[in-house]
Specification:
Elements: E1 5-7, H1 9-16, H2 23-28, E2 38-41, H3 42-53, H4 65-76, E3 80-82, H5 86-98, H6 105-117, E4 122-124, H7 128-134, E5 139-141, H8 143-148
Parallel strand pairs: 1-2, 1-4, 2-3, 4-5
Length: 151
C-alpha cells in the first residue's frame, strides 16, 4: 500500500486541540478526500496520548483518558499505523546512542526510522529542525508545505 507521508506526534496534537495555533493546517491534512494516504508511527500514538492527558499546572491540554483515546481512534480510523519491530527499535536506539544522541529526540529518530523502513517519502511535522537534522535525505515539511506541494 502506498503511503505518502508520516505524521509526527506534534501534528496529531495540533489537529486534536482546537485552540492550538496549528490546529487549522494540521486538521486540513485529513480533509484531502482520501487522495493522500497518511501513516502514524505506533509509538507516536503513545507520545500523543501522554501529552494530551498530562496533568499539572503547566499541562496545556488535560484531556481525560476517554477523550484522548477517542481522539486517537478518530485519527487511527483514517490513517495507517506503522511500527518498528523490537530489533529495529533496538537498532535505532543503538545507532542514536552511538551518534551521541541524547534525550527526547530519540522519539524523532524512531519516527524517521519508521519512514525509512516503510519507504514513506515525507515526514510532516511542526518541528522541522529536529527531523531535518536527523534525516537530511527525507522530505521533512510542515503541514502547510505538504498541502501546497505540487502533486
Amino acid at each position: 500500500m502506498r503511503i505518502d507521508a508520516l505524521l509526527d506526534s506534534n501534528v496529531l496534537i495540533a489537529m486534536l486541540f482546537e485552540a492550538h495555533e496549528h490546529y487549522g493546517p494540521s486538521l486540513a491534512l485529513l480533509a484531502n478526500g482520501g487522495d493522500i494516504r497518511f501513516a502514524v508511527a505506533a509509538h507516536s500514538f503513545a507520545e500523543t496520548y501522554t501529552t494530551l492527558t498530562r496533568r499539572g499546572q503547566h499541562a496545556q491540554f488535560q484531556f481525560t483518558p476517554d477523550e484522548a483515546w477517542a481522539a486517537l481512534e478518530s485519527i487511527r480510523a483514517v490513517t495507517s499505523v506503522v511500527s518498528l519491530t523490537a530489533p529495529q527499535t533496538l537498532d535505532a536506539i543503538r545507532s542514536y546512542a552511538a551518534s551521541g544522541g541524547t534525550g527526547p529526540r530519540l522519539y524523532d529518530r524512531l519516527i524517521g526510522e519508521a519512514a525509512i523502513i516503510y519507504a514513506i517519502p515525507a515526514i510532516v511535522t511542526w518541528n522541522l529542525s529536529h527531523m531535518r537534522g536527523l534525516f537530511p535525505a527525507l522530505a521533512v515539511v510542515t503541514p502547510d508545505e505538504f498541502a501546497n506541494a505540487p502533486p
